[in-house]
Write a structure and sequence with these properties.
heterodimer; A: alpha+beta; Cytochrome Bc1 Complex, Chain D, domain 2; 2 domains; two-stranded antiparallel sheet; 8% strand; B: mainly alpha; Cytochrome C Oxidase, Chain A; 16 helices
Chain lengths: 209, 481
Amino acid sequence: MNKFSVLLFGIFTAFFASWGVFVGYSSIVLGRLQPLPDEETRGYFPPSLSGLAISGQKSYAANGCLYCHSQQVRPPSLSTDVKKGLGPRSTVARDFLRSQPAFPGTMRTGPDLANVGLRQLDPNWHHRHLYDPRSVTDWSIMPSFRYLYILRRIEGHSSEEAVQGLKGPHAPPPGFEVIPTSEAKALVAYLVSLKKNYPLPEASISTGK
Amino acid sequence: MTALTDIAPPANARAAIDASARMPVLIFFVSAVFWLLIGSLLGLICAWKMVFPTLLGSQAWMTFGRLRPAHLNVLAYGWASLAGIGIGIWLMARLCRMCLPQPGLLSIAAVFWNLGLIAGILGIMAGESRSIAWLELPSYASTLIFVAFVLIGIWTILMFRSRRPGAAYVSEWYIFAAFLWFPWIYATANILLIWQPAPGPAQPAINWWFAQNLISLWFVPMGLASAYYMIPKVLGRPLYSNSLAMLGFWSLAIVSVWSGAQHLIGGPIPTWMVSLSAAAGIMTCIPIIAVAANFHMTMSGHFDTLRWSPTLRFTVFGAIAYSLTGLQGILMAIPSVNALTHFTDFTTGHAHLGLYGFFSMVMFGGMYFIVPRLIGGEWPSASMIRWHFGLAVSGIALMFGALTLGGLLQGLALYDPDASFKTSVEFATPFRWISGASGFLILAANITFATLFLRMLFWPLRGQASATLLAPPEETEETAP
């Protein structure tokens, strides 16, 4: 064997061994995970996403939410995530069954969102927060997603859809109201759907304090 | 594998080789420098948006979540990859001792690559990204880049097969391997995550495998190839040890492909995968130490050359940053450290030390050596080179220091069960100011380099007796009578 074939052989052997393990194993074994039936409600764990939430997931990707927000609770053996109330249990691979793509995230510049739907169920709160984060938390460094909202002149009655509770400097000009676009509604539907409180055999919910 | 001095082509052959490489390599360099400016400007905006979230308003295409991936992709696939390919092509030509076959193929590849990237960055700004780390370019863009790369890959094999007889130097090994690895990792990740996405549970492991290998099988080999060539070349001495170089190469190929998943400790992947990666991550000290020892022993007794040679000053700084990044990576593979630093600015500092402190500096060093040989003239200003180095080093040092310290404090607050989330933001904020300020230094360094590069393209110094040096060289022992 000449040096060239040794080099080529080495380059490919080293590479495909790791390819087989990380890509092959993940695609075959993790890729075949199935949702588990829930006997009580005849639904599934993790529950499927509504159509609106699926399009909200696309908006989550398009606007790069995951560059500041993770969606994974690490186990208590390694972290204080559960203690800090990020969720009732750690996140496992099966939790990402409904995620396309999966957003485990790498940064916590903003809070973890794995269970944001458990902490904050009110869609109006999310709309207010997305429209102007500093109207909810004055120290927030989240960008405003005003471009997902329409500032509209109130004609007759104010719309039922209008974002409520924008006060002071955050309020729309008098006679105007803030209406969420369909993308904003989808994004909020997705955020509210983020709950990992269902039991899975590989991740039990610890009730002991 | 052999010593550089054995395979140096005679002077007239060198000139012919350089002339054949001129067009494609310059196209790669010019586009790389263009993307460097765009990328560092985007990075600067992102850094300040973390302090002033309302900066530059709230248009969709200017939101942080789109500018940040645009910044990363511009620098990774625009600046770093194109500069690395340009240097790789030139090194292959010199080391294979032959004029470039089919230079047109490479120029076409560069055009495809740039078109793909322009389309992709506009796509990200328009909201077409799937937000998968390092793979944000939409599928039409990554397809164009992949086509460009297949052309480059075909060229590489042609080149390596038809080279003049003689053993290969270690730089050739790295470039050859990187140019063969890249299409596999890029195609695998794009197919499984973007084009025909795998189910969600499989994605995090594949994504980390890709991100890690993009670094250790694409950027690291290209950077090391340049350093392995430039250090002995400028010194005019042989590399300290060829067996150490082989150890470095094979241990990188064999060990580092297994690391990466340790960054997902506690994440949604099997624990055995994490343990495997953590072990491999710790073993990456073998290639790191092998490379560092080889460079150090080659430089030993000749550190005064750093005073006058721009190429060496940048390359050696980059090589030191490579060791530091690698050792920091090993630290970050330790579970208790990872629990603190993961999810914080600490990781951003690590990424910048690797991609700017190591890779970009080595690329600058290589370009300072190569461009005069392509143009047939010398760099028009030594003081601009000094400014470039000073600004770049102070910028990256300040940025790395600020993000590392700020990230640690942020991590402590995120870890402490009694601290509120607000505390983590408050801890990180002053350091984000410093990091934003360092962004100005880095942008200034890059503008200085781009200006000098432009002057070099159009108004190089001709007829100068020696290369443009930073200081008059002192006579070393070998050359002294």
